[in-house]
Amino acid sequence: MTTQVKPRSDGVDRRLSANGSDLDSLPLAPPKTRRSRVPQLLLAALLMVGGGLGGLILFRQYNQRTAAVVITAPVTHGEILTRDQLAITEVALDRDVMSIGALSDVVGRIAAHDLAPGELVSPNDLTTDDRLVAADEAVIGLLLEPGQYPTTRLATGDRVDVFAPGSETSGQALATGLPVYDVVESSNDGRTLLVSLVVRDRDAAAIFDAAEAGGVRLSLRGLGEEPGE
After folding, report:
1. Burial call 93-124: b when 16+ CB within 10 Å, e when fewer
2. Which phi-psi region, left, alpha or beta, contains residue 177 (left: φ > 0; alpha: ψ -120 to 50)?
3. pLDDT, averaged across the chain
4. 4 vs 20, 27, 170, 197, CA distance in Å?
5. What SS3 class is residue 59?
């Protein structure tokens, strides 16, 4: 293809193709440019910031320190805790670790077992008078069917008398005024109960023998009622 140069009226030469078309007036293809990477760079920046914040949150969660009551002097089973045996410390605890964070929740409470200096105090370390087992006592469990216990509402702290089969009519109980330590339903229908009683050591063997021989029955005492009344 040959081109010709044709003078323009404005004094500027114009190029013409062999067929007379104006080459200078033809549209030009847009210049090729690189695809913009701004959105990708912005997304990457957001991901980096989000990852950093997530790591910071996890770091704080795993290193968060909580106030906890700690034992500072030896404590024996059944002892009433005093202020000079306790202190407050800051510790990082796992989620499944239970602790008490206020001295007022511990002072005056009874130790459920021996506690050594440095131990954190948890709710399981404390007990009450009705759950305290003395040195000459024991906790025994009786699996009782309907008719052997007085009520399904039997609860911790209630006091009961224990009778052997046939002894109810004579009024001769195997043991009287025993504190109920715990009550657990032991059947799907809730009718069989595992009743744990605090008994004197001298009475434990007789109660077990009667339970094996023909079962025992419990009688619920009224509030304030003393054995023998």
Report:
1. eeeeeebbbeeeebeebbbbeebeeeebbeee
2. left
3. 78
4. 8, 19, 140, 120
5. helix
Residue type, 116: A
Cα–Cα dist 118/120, whole Å: 7
75 bridge partner residues = 115
The residue type found at 7 is P
Asked if 98 and 105 count as a contact pair (C-beta separation under 8 A), the reply is: no
pLDDT digit string, tens, across residues 30-88: 555 555 555 666 666 666 766 666 665 555 555 577 889 999 999 988 889 999 999 99
pLDDT (tens digit, 9 = 90+) per residue, 102-122?
A: 999 999 999 888 899 999 999
Per the DSSP assignment, residues forming a β-bridge with 111 are 126
In the block, tokens 């920046």 appear at 45
In sequence order, the 6+-apart residues with CB closer than 8 A to the CB of 156 are 130, 131, 180, 181, 182, 183
**In angstroms, what CA-CA distances link 164 with 118, 213, 228?**
48, 9, 17
Report angle CA 154, 180, 223 to the nearest 5 degrees: 70
Q: For residue 186, is pLDDT > 70?
A: yes
Residue 206 structure tokens: 């007789």
Query: What does the DSSP 8-state code read for residue 77?
Result: T
Which amino acid is residue 26, in one-letter code? L
Contacts 24+ apart (CB under 8 A), 225-228: 225/159, 226/177, 227/161, 227/176, 227/177, 228/176
The DSSP H or E segment spanning 164 is: none
